[in-house]
Amino acid sequence: MKLIDGKELAHSLRGEIAAGVAGLKAEKGVTPGLAVILVGDNPASVSYVTAKKRACAEAGMLSREIRLPAETTEEELVARVKELNADPEIHGILVQLPVPKHIRDKAVIDAIAPEKDVDGFTPINVGKMMIGDECFLPCTPHGIIKLIEFSGMDIRGKHAVVIGRSNIVGKPVAALLARKETNATVTLCHTGTPDVGHFTRDADIVVVAAGRPNTLTGDMLKDGAVVIDVGVNRIPDETNPKGFRLVGDADFESCSKVAGAITPVPGGVGPMTITMLLWNTLESARRVAK
Ligand code: NAP
Description:
Oligomer: single chain
Largest sheet: 6 strands, parallel
CATH architecture of the largest domain: 3-Layer(aba) Sandwich
Shape: globular
Radius of gyration: 19 Å
Distance between the termini: 45 Å
Strand order of the largest sheet: 1-11-8-7-5-6
Bound molecules: NADP nicotinamide-adenine-dinucleotide phosphate
């Protein structure tokens, strides 16, 4: 069994991105800039935003963190996004989700200019991805494709099963795997699938993004399958100083005995999500500098 090391792949891609940033600065005098808006102080969101800021700095990019109180209104948040749409120093805008319940995700995402939508969440980018136009691919799904390739698996002609159909992970991963370039045959499972194991036992690739520990167990896998575990779940753990530990959606112990390759949690998909965000921000700055 091979461990698919997301940190290693992320490190190598971030080296390429940093070189691209340095080149763009030297040739065109443009520094890629990413703005991250955080509303409220959800601890997981704070740590994600901190990690994104650090990654930007390491790549030589400009990062602007905008922290707003939890009681910020939808109108105020949309107005901040629109200011950033017009800001020439900023090439990528990200609103850290989830936003407080009184703000509609959709209203905020719709406000982001598609040419600065480096998360790839706006309807324009999603539509372009579906029809194969140039766009920003959503970061986690794009990172997942890179991880499968990094495992050594040739995706073409394989049967891939995706568990979960969210707009940010499951649906776009299924769409990317089914594109002509990757050419997988894709099955998309969800809570309406009566027997997920029936499909996963036939799969060469399983991507599990359900948000529930133990959704995938070793007895549900074919020998040698590649498993990408997207889940991030906090499990209470008194032996850990933080009082919890992180586990994925796959039962690592049983799955790793059957899989040919598997991502760990943490250290698998997570580092790749941030890497693809940097990738898109650099790409956005390059388009402006042309
Ligand atoms: P989500 O919006 O809650 O969607 C979960 C999906 O899984 C839903 O479509 C649900 O089906 C399906 N599902 C849940 N339990 C299932 C089961 N037992 N069998 C089959 N399908 C099941 O979650 P998400 O936003 O996609 O995120 C999924 C996980 O990935 C979470 O743990 C999240 O924290 C993690 N995540 C990690 C990263 C990263 O960078 N590492 C990025 C994004 C998300 P229904 O549609 O029928 O309800």
